[in-house]
Amino acid sequence: MVGAVRSPFRFLRAVVRGFAVAVRWWRSWVRVADYRQAAEASEKLADKFRDIRELTLFRWKVTGATGAGTGVALSVLDLVCGHQVLWLAGGVAAAGLAVLGRRNDGSPGRKAVLAGPRALTWTMDPQVLVDAFRDAKLIGKDEALRLVERTTRQGDGWAVVVDLPATRKATDVVKNREALASALAVDEVQLIVERVRGRGGHAGRVALWVADDDPYGAAPQRTPLLSAQRWDAWRPVPFGRDARQRQVELPLVWTSLLVGAIPRQGKTFAARLAVAGLVLDPHTRLYVADFKAGKDWYASGQVAHRFMSGDEPEHVLALVDWLVELVGEVQGRYRRMQALDDEVCPESKITPDMSRDPRLDMPVTAIVIDEVQVPLEDRTALEIQGKRIAAGEYVGELLTWLARKGPAAGIVLVLATQRPDSRTIPSGLRAVLGSRFALRVMDWRDSNIVLGEQMNTRGYDSSRLLASHKGVGILRPDGDGTSDPDVLATTVRTYYMPNEDWRVICRRGRALRQAEGTLTGNAAGHATLPVFDRATAARVVGTMAERTAEPELPEPLASVVAYLGKDLQPGGRDFVPTAELVAELDAEATAFGLQMGELGCKPRRDRVTTEMGVRQVRGYLVAEIREAVTRYRTHPAVDAEGDR
């Protein structure tokens, strides 16, 4: 009762407060207070006085025009419709002012417009951005930036495009993103730095975007595939969103995918997102091997041509049979392509029409292996062409051959591992996997194993991702078929697809296959054994037992050895300057020195002859590099553990 009596008075007070707030806001807006404060903070008020005056006059004109237009409109409506229009307009205005005048300043709908005071300043005055680049030592104290695109509001952040001074490279800005974030007084996760490439870009053009808050702090979004009734495997799969909430898509046909992460970072979820698009295409064939032996992939047994879950040696041997069968399948597809005319098969690769033609029997075929380190590390002995070889080594050879020869024939590899190290995944296999996705790993070495060598020196290191950012990783897609082939890599928050959503998608995929008549193998209840010829596969693929490969050298030692070539041999060079190696390998000097030191190569000073005469420079003794190579090849396991 008391509340009902007081409500009109509370409403009236709220309207009065709202009117006062609105007047203060209008006065601040018409006087250009935000621009004036930013100019004062940067000590540029005198330089900006003319701009401030022009903008003030313009806003007064806008105010007058708006007031006059509103008055005329209300007068006309009053004459046409009667006085109820004025009462309605007054009621709406009073309600709006009451909402604006609420005492609780934290009411829903109010949020900060800018990331902070420093961000406000550099959006108003580009000179502050120049100072930040100088503080981060990205440009010299006498150099400046050229503004290509004015600072604009994009999504939940601010964006600007600048040109660096001549000879300055955008890749250096990408590498030193953390230093630039510090100079801008924002967390590095809020700063996105990209080189502008292609048409409209060049080696010195940089695009910056600063988020208001942690762009990965919000809850992840559900996958759009949940609402899709079917999908085309030839279309890129919606994989996630970047920091600016732009959708990131992942092509799968004609390429392959490696997903690496430490446990409980979203590795299996990411792999399932990629496979979900194939599940919803009834013209694809799936081989699913779950060496985690859990429930994550169990639902895919409803659609998979071949499915198994387990981590025992018999499961590894079954995988060997699958892979040998697929080697024979690839060989058969290439032979059948030779007999097709150019209209059906223009090149030696399958087309969308070929993959859907049941007479040709060449569907897009995916081999999905979760915890691929289990079969790759298996030591069960196999006898291939009279020679004994470990099952894990043979699996590595088969996967490498399929990743190299299979994509053009419609074979897609999706491999996931929680142990992304050089001893688990052979270098030959890594070299032919087109797309890589690295969630959080332990250190930069593991990140480079997944993303590629020297990626950490180019600004992409998944070991620096936050533990709280589940499902956030660095995607390095295969350039062929991506929406932006000029982008080397991007940080992505994957879509969320829990087990219940995965089961829905698999049930939908099964129904689609039943309708199309493409349900085969395990999903159709036909537990047929693989059809294979190990002797033929061994001749095609070759085995590691047939050659004695030396242990793989870690980076950057491997790149240094490749660069030196014959100069590494006795009688070649005695000393190589650090500057020469850094320039040739396109490496970051500090990180390169630390990595070489961890591998046992310490920099020294020596005299070298140059065009300017004899100079003393820092570098490495070639003899020490030779010793590091010998030591690692003799005791690779010991050195690898020592590096960690």
Describe the 3D structure.
By secondary structure, the chain is an alpha/beta fold. The chain contains 22 helices and 19 strands. The strands form four sheets. The chain has a ten-stranded mixed beta sheet. A four-stranded antiparallel beta sheet has the order 1-2-4-3. A three-stranded antiparallel beta sheet has the order 17-19-18. Strand 11 (381-384) and strand 12 (387-390) form a beta hairpin. It is flat, with a radius of gyration of 31 Å. The relative contact order is 0.08. Residues 1-5, 103-121, 543-549 and 637-644 have low confidence and may be disordered.
For this entry, give a set of tags.
644 residues; ten-stranded mixed sheet; four-stranded antiparallel sheet
Number of strands: 19
End-to-end Cα distance: 73 Å
Give the percentage of residues in beta strands: 15-25%
So how many helices?
22
* Percent of residues in helices: 40-55%
Strand order within the widest sheet?
A: 6-5-16-15-14-7-13-10-8-9
Low-pLDDT ranges: 1-5, 103-121, 543-549, 637-644
Radius of gyration from the alpha-carbon trace, in angstroms: 31 Å
Q: What's the mean pLDDT score?
A: 81
Envelope shape: flat
Largest sheet: 10 strands, mixed
Structural class: alpha/beta
Task: Give a brief outline of the structure.
The chain is α/β, with parallel strands linked by helices and 644 residues long. It is built from 22 helices and 19 strands.
Describe the secondary structure blueprint for this structure:
Layout: H1 2-30, H2 33-41, H3 45-81, H4 84-100, H5 117-124, H6 126-135, E1 146-154, E2 157-163, H7 170-175, H8 177-184, E3 191-195, E4 205-211, E5 237-241, E6 247-250, E7 257-260, H9 267-279, E8 284-290, E9 306-309, H10 313-338, H11 352-356, E10 364-370, H12 373-376, E11 381-384, E12 387-390, H13 391-405, E13 411-417, H14 427-431, E14 435-438, H15 444-451, E15 472-476, E16 490-494, H16 499-516, H17 534-541, H18 557-564, E17 575-577, H19 578-585, H20 589-598, E18 604-610, E19 613-621, H21 622-634, H22 636-643
Parallel strand pairs: 7-13, 7-14, 8-9, 8-10, 10-13
Antiparallel strand pairs: 1-2, 2-4, 3-4, 5-6, 5-16, 11-12, 14-15, 15-16, 17-19, 18-19
